[in-house]
Amino acid sequence: MKKLILSAILFISMGTVAMSQTDNKKVQKTPEERAQRSTDMLDKKLSLTADQKTKIYALNLAEMNKMKEKHVKGEKRDMTAMKAAMEERDTKINNILDKKQRSSYKEWKEKRREGMKDHAGKRQGDRRNKEQSREKI
User: pLDDT tens-digit profile of 56-85?
Assistant: First the structure.
Protein backbone atom coordinates (compact mmCIF):
# COMPACT_ATOMS: atom_id res chain seq x y z
CA MET A 1 0.00 0.00 0.00
CA LYS A 2 2.83 2.39 0.89
CA LYS A 3 4.55 1.61 -2.41
CA LEU A 4 1.37 2.38 -4.32
CA ILE A 5 0.92 5.75 -2.58
CA LEU A 6 4.59 6.66 -3.03
CA SER A 7 4.52 5.71 -6.71
CA ALA A 8 1.35 7.80 -7.21
CA ILE A 9 2.98 10.81 -5.52
CA LEU A 10 6.13 10.32 -7.61
CA PHE A 11 4.07 10.09 -10.80
CA ILE A 12 2.12 13.26 -10.00
CA SER A 13 5.24 15.21 -9.04
CA MET A 14 7.00 14.17 -12.25
CA GLY A 15 4.05 15.43 -14.26
CA THR A 16 4.10 18.71 -12.38
CA VAL A 17 7.82 19.18 -13.01
CA ALA A 18 7.41 18.38 -16.69
CA MET A 19 4.57 20.89 -17.04
CA SER A 20 6.53 23.64 -15.33
CA GLN A 21 9.47 23.17 -17.69
CA THR A 22 7.44 23.66 -20.83
CA ASP A 23 6.96 27.40 -21.07
CA ASN A 24 4.58 28.55 -23.80
CA LYS A 25 5.56 32.22 -23.62
CA LYS A 26 6.83 33.85 -26.77
CA VAL A 27 10.47 34.80 -26.73
CA GLN A 28 10.76 38.56 -27.05
CA LYS A 29 13.00 39.54 -29.93
CA THR A 30 15.43 42.41 -29.60
CA PRO A 31 14.67 45.65 -31.43
CA GLU A 32 17.54 44.85 -33.80
CA GLU A 33 16.03 41.46 -34.69
CA ARG A 34 12.59 42.95 -35.23
CA ALA A 35 13.99 45.80 -37.35
CA GLN A 36 15.98 43.32 -39.44
CA ARG A 37 12.94 41.08 -39.93
CA SER A 38 10.78 44.02 -40.97
CA THR A 39 13.44 45.30 -43.36
CA ASP A 40 13.95 41.85 -44.89
CA MET A 41 10.20 41.48 -45.40
CA LEU A 42 10.02 44.83 -47.22
CA ASP A 43 13.11 43.93 -49.26
CA LYS A 44 11.46 40.67 -50.32
CA LYS A 45 8.20 42.39 -51.29
CA LEU A 46 9.63 45.55 -52.89
CA SER A 47 13.12 44.60 -54.14
CA LEU A 48 14.89 47.41 -52.29
CA THR A 49 18.23 48.80 -53.35
CA ALA A 50 21.15 48.56 -50.92
CA ASP A 51 20.78 52.27 -50.06
CA GLN A 52 17.03 51.94 -49.47
CA LYS A 53 17.56 48.85 -47.36
CA THR A 54 20.10 50.67 -45.16
CA LYS A 55 17.80 53.69 -44.71
CA ILE A 56 14.74 51.56 -43.95
CA TYR A 57 16.69 49.43 -41.47
CA ALA A 58 17.82 52.58 -39.64
CA LEU A 59 14.23 53.85 -39.60
CA ASN A 60 12.87 50.52 -38.37
CA LEU A 61 15.53 50.26 -35.68
CA ALA A 62 14.76 53.75 -34.38
CA GLU A 63 11.02 52.94 -34.30
CA MET A 64 11.54 49.60 -32.56
CA ASN A 65 13.74 51.24 -29.92
CA LYS A 66 11.08 53.93 -29.33
CA MET A 67 8.41 51.25 -28.94
CA LYS A 68 10.56 49.34 -26.47
CA GLU A 69 11.17 52.47 -24.38
CA LYS A 70 7.47 53.39 -24.30
CA HIS A 71 6.19 49.90 -23.51
CA VAL A 72 5.79 49.16 -19.83
CA LYS A 73 5.10 45.51 -19.07
CA GLY A 74 1.58 44.90 -17.84
CA GLU A 75 0.18 48.23 -19.06
CA LYS A 76 -2.27 48.61 -21.88
CA ARG A 77 -0.81 50.20 -25.00
CA ASP A 78 -2.00 53.59 -26.24
CA MET A 79 -3.51 52.60 -29.57
CA THR A 80 -3.94 56.15 -30.88
CA ALA A 81 -0.26 56.91 -30.29
CA MET A 82 0.72 53.62 -31.90
CA LYS A 83 -1.44 54.36 -34.94
CA ALA A 84 0.07 57.85 -35.28
CA ALA A 85 3.60 56.42 -35.04
CA MET A 86 2.75 53.79 -37.66
CA GLU A 87 1.41 56.43 -40.05
CA GLU A 88 4.52 58.56 -39.51
CA ARG A 89 6.71 55.51 -40.22
CA ASP A 90 4.74 54.75 -43.39
CA THR A 91 5.22 58.34 -44.57
CA LYS A 92 8.97 58.10 -44.00
CA ILE A 93 9.13 54.75 -45.81
CA ASN A 94 7.14 56.19 -48.74
CA ASN A 95 9.69 59.02 -48.98
CA ILE A 96 12.48 56.45 -49.37
CA LEU A 97 10.69 54.33 -52.00
CA ASP A 98 10.35 55.08 -55.70
CA LYS A 99 6.97 55.43 -57.43
CA LYS A 100 6.59 51.76 -58.42
CA GLN A 101 7.62 50.56 -54.97
CA ARG A 102 5.16 52.98 -53.31
CA SER A 103 2.24 51.47 -55.23
CA SER A 104 3.41 47.92 -54.38
CA TYR A 105 3.83 48.93 -50.74
CA LYS A 106 0.32 50.42 -50.65
CA GLU A 107 -1.20 47.26 -52.19
CA TRP A 108 0.71 45.03 -49.76
CA LYS A 109 -0.49 47.08 -46.77
CA GLU A 110 -4.09 46.83 -47.99
CA LYS A 111 -3.83 43.05 -48.35
CA ARG A 112 -2.38 42.78 -44.84
CA ARG A 113 -5.14 44.99 -43.45
CA GLU A 114 -7.82 42.86 -45.13
CA GLY A 115 -6.15 39.70 -43.82
CA MET A 116 -6.16 41.11 -40.31
CA LYS A 117 -9.84 42.02 -40.58
CA ASP A 118 -10.68 38.53 -41.81
CA HIS A 119 -8.67 36.95 -39.02
CA ALA A 120 -10.29 39.17 -36.38
CA GLY A 121 -13.74 38.41 -37.79
CA LYS A 122 -13.10 34.69 -37.61
CA ARG A 123 -11.93 34.99 -34.02
CA GLN A 124 -15.01 36.98 -33.07
CA GLY A 125 -17.19 34.46 -34.91
CA ASP A 126 -15.55 31.64 -32.94
CA ARG A 127 -16.28 33.49 -29.70
CA ARG A 128 -19.89 34.04 -30.68
CA ASN A 129 -20.31 30.37 -31.55
CA LYS A 130 -18.88 29.34 -28.18
CA GLU A 131 -21.17 31.77 -26.36
CA GLN A 132 -24.19 30.51 -28.26
CA SER A 133 -23.35 26.89 -27.55
CA ARG A 134 -22.93 27.72 -23.85
CA GLU A 135 -26.33 29.40 -23.81
CA LYS A 136 -27.95 26.30 -25.29
CA ILE A 137 -26.53 24.10 -22.56
Answer: 999 999 988 888 877 766 667 778 888 888
